[in-house]
Amino acid sequence: MTRDSQSTARKVPAAHPAPASDLTHIVLAFEDNRLIGDLFGQFDQNLALIEQRLGLDAIARGNQVTLKGSHAGCSQARAALEALYQRLQQGHEIHPGDVEGALRMAAAAEAQLPLPTLEPKSRLAFAQISTRRKTIVARTPTQDAYIRSMDRADLVFGTGPAGTGKTFLAVAYAATLLERGDAARLILSRPAVEAGERLGFLPGDMKDKVDPYLRPLYDALYEMMPPEKVDRGLQSGMIEVAPLAFMRGRTLSNAVVLLDEAQNTTSMQMKMFLTRLGEGSKMIVTGDPSQIDLPPGQMSGLREALALLNAVEGVAHVRFTEQDVVRHELVARIVTAYDNASREASQDRERRFRERQDGGKSDETGERS
């Protein structure tokens, strides 16, 4: 891939004057014509997405694309297109979600620079998880940090709202360790806590009752590994999917152990689970502290563990936010709306508490006088 030209030649209407130094255009040429259709997208939809997100013009002509806009926008678009092209060269497919991810990573890299620049920079380094069936590439800086943390630490907490990929990436990473032979067993667990329903009303035996709660873990496994391999692993015990209650009294050695929906564990359950960690094992704990389904007044074991283990060596905690939501963009807006409402309610409770305290002090002062 070569860059053919670079200048500051774009004009803007007089009604919206802008310094010429704030505008630029870049022409990128990609050598492998076979990859251009996938890079630009059907009907240039990937370029249209880049235009929409960065507020610039991306004009395709043959194996070239001309970027016209601000320095920062063109720099980010260039970095994203180069990263996507590199993925295609490696034999991977790209989807609109990957384009979004490349733009987020490019924006994060740009934010680390003291000033926007169009000088050549090193390629974006996306952390990734690969199995024989699929390769998952980080789509946000937080996902990138999460994957790297799972490589470094023996116990990793991933917390944040739904749709950020924290559970899927954890299962994908666990499947990779199993496939590479770095772990002898894969153990996936969830607390069987109802969100309004009762397990007893569901038909079937215990397995039939708890399987719906574990379905997201099954889905991620089948996406990362061939179905026949997953089925053989489940039958042989190499892959175990079980409710949290079944972990008591065990020592889990040479295994990768994942606890999902950890916000619904009690303090004793979390302590029990964490102390199952055996030699040669890794643990990944995921959850959303804002969606606790425990009975009122009962403290979440996840919140307590995060506070107690904050400074413990070998423990990593990666926090996802609504900015990391990689599902439909509407999901991010929904998460933001709920978070704002929760924050306002919390501030309102604090305000009423302070008012009661101030009122009590005023009454004491009046009595003394």
List keywords for this structure.
globular; 2 domains; alpha/beta; disordered N terminus; Ribosomal Protein S8, Chain: A, domain 1; six-stranded parallel sheet; four-stranded antiparallel sheet; 11 helices; 369 residues; Rossmann fold
Summarize the structure.
This protein has helices at 36-40, 45-54, 71-89, 96-111, 141-152, 166-180, 206-224, 227-236, 267-274, 301-308, 329-368, and strands spanning 2-7, 23-29, 57-61, 64-70, 128-130, 135-137, 155-159, 185-190, 239-243, 255-259, 282-287, 315-319.
Structure description:
The protein has 369 residues and is of the alpha/beta class. It has 2 domains: 2-125, Ribosomal Protein S8, Chain: A, domain 1; 130-323, P-loop containing nucleotide triphosphate hydrolases (Rossmann fold). It is 44% helix and 17% strand. It contains 11 helices and 12 strands. The protein has helices at residues 36-40, 45-54, 71-89, 96-111, 141-152, 166-180, 206-224, 227-236, 267-274, 301-308, 329-368, and strands spanning 2-7, 23-29, 57-61, 64-70, 128-130, 135-137, 155-159, 185-190, 239-243, 255-259, 282-287, 315-319. A 6-stranded parallel β-sheet has the order 9-8-10-11-7-12. Strands 1-2-4-3 form a 4-stranded antiparallel β-sheet. α9 links the parallel β10 and β11. The longest helix is centred in the C-terminal third of the chain and has 40 residues, at 329-368. The chain is globular and about 65 Å long. The protein starts with a strand and ends with a helix.
